[in-house]
Specification:
Strand 8 and strand 9 form a beta hairpin. Among the domains are: 140 residues, HUPs (Rossmann fold), CATH 3.40.50; 62 residues, SH3 type barrels (Roll), CATH 2.30.30. The chain has 367 residues and is α/β, with parallel strands linked by helices. A 6-stranded antiparallel beta barrel has the order 12-15-14-13-16-17. A 5-stranded parallel sheet has the order 3-2-1-4-7, sandwiched between helices. It has a 4-stranded mixed sheet with strand order 9-8-11-10, with no helix packed on it. Helix 1 packs parallel to helix 2, helix 1 crosses helix 6 and helix 3 packs antiparallel against helix 4.
Length: 367
């Protein structure tokens, strides 16, 4: 089988490619240049896509003895991931750029090009498993729960899963580093990248301020009383507690949290932790890793990459997904992805448009 191995320059993708070589496949390595002006070196463990990363990927490919290429996808990445990220925050939503990158870049642009060039599959270093099920290939959680990345892969369709390979899904991370050392790969102890890859210094608010400019507004409580000011709604997300810049404490002395973000009138509404409770979400743009669910289905729902799955019920009607939580949840924000599971199997995902809580619904308000 002809396999295109996406090599980021890190240890995971290098070992994934090496395993494909060991399995006897015809492997070609490719590094995705996603920045039009890459830095020479990483800043600690943050960021990726630097010149150093591309060189690390090339050196790993040389050790394996496989062909290696660099594909320039910087323009596509900026349009589909970076600009989408900025636009979502400008609209008061909380996006996950890793999901968007998997959906639009790694398993759309890259996979489409790979298939057009005659490759059979794309291999990556993601921690997830693809298993054969009664209705085709299924996406499952990785064996290592600490590294599981099935959440950010919940945007993949069954057609894309048919041409995807995740060789690391049955291995824990410490074993991967040991294996890389045995293979003579220089990236064996290279730090993992963290946070958002195109914000190397980790200052998301600063990045958004540079992109959108300051837009001062008011911080108000649920009665509408102004209790603080801010430089831009993009600096907030639902459930946030720190950095609210509130001039005085709540009457009961308890912490306050962001309940609502309104970029139109530049208002951020804060309230008690109890007011964060969400019992129902409505999502759009659903994507299914297999057959779409029919009727109301019992499932587990996850709305953060490293969050805990919670018992839920879900129903799809006319491409609109409604999910009800068995126990009210906190910090659910529009723009987040909600990923549904049946045990370890990923059913699919949708983008949260609205999140309702009993307290807010009783006053005819929705987050």
């Amino acid at each position: 089988m002809r396999v295109l191995a996406a090599m980021s320059g890190g240890v995971d993708s290098a070992v994934a490619a090496a395993r494909m070589v060991d399995a006897g496949h015809d492997v070609t390595g490719v590094h995705l240049a996603l920045s039009s002006n890459p830095q020479s070196f990483r800043s600690g463990a943050r960021g990726c896509c630097t010149l150093e990363d591309s060189r690390d990927a090339r050196r790993a490919a040389d050790v394996m003895g496989i062909p290696f290429y660099i594909w320039d996808l910087a323009e596509r990445f900026r349009a589909d991931v970076v600009e989408d990220f900025v636009a979502e925050y400008a609209a008061g939503r909380t996006p996950n750029p890793c999901l968007r990158c998997n959906e639009k870049i790694k398993f759309s642009a890259v996979l489409e090009r790979a298939l057009a060039l005659g490759f059979d599959a794309v291999c990556t270093g993601h921690y997830a498993r693809i298993l054969d099920g009664p209705q085709g290939r299924e996406l499952h959680r990785a064996v290592d729960p600490e590294k599981d990345q099935s959440y950010v892969l919940g945007v993949l369709t069954s057609e894309q899963l048919a041409h995807a390979i995740f060789p690391l899904g049955d291995t824990v991370k410490t074993d991967i580093r040991d294996e890389a050392e045995r293979r003579g790969l220089a990236v064996a102890r290279k730090p993992d990248s963290h946070d958002i890859c195109f914000i190397a210094d980790g200052d998301t608010a600063g990045f958004l301020r540079d992109q959108l400019g300051e837009a001062p507004g008011e911080v108000v409580d649920t009665s509408g009383e102004v209790i603080g000011e801010h430089d831009g709604t993009f600096g907030f997300t639902i459930g946030q507690r720190k950095g609210l810049r509130i001039g005085r404490p709540a009457p009961d002395g308890k912490p306050r949290y962001v309940l609502d973000i309104s970029p139109v009138d530049r208002r951020v509404t804060v309230g008690s932790r109890e007011e964060l409770a969400v019992g129902e979400v409505v999502g759009s743009a659903p994507r299914w890793c297999g057959p779409a669910p029919v009727g109301v289905v019992e499932c587990a729902a996850q709305f953060r990459a490293h969050g805990e799955p919670v018992p839920a019920r879900a129903e799809l009607v006319d491409d609109v997904l409604t999910v009800w939580f068995d126990v009210a949840q906190e910090g659910v924000a529009p723009g987040q992805a909600i990923v549904l599971y049946d045990g370890d199997r990923v059913i699919g995902s949708a983008t949260i448009d609205r999140a309702h809580s009993p307290m807010i619904m009783n006053s005819s308000r929705a987050i």
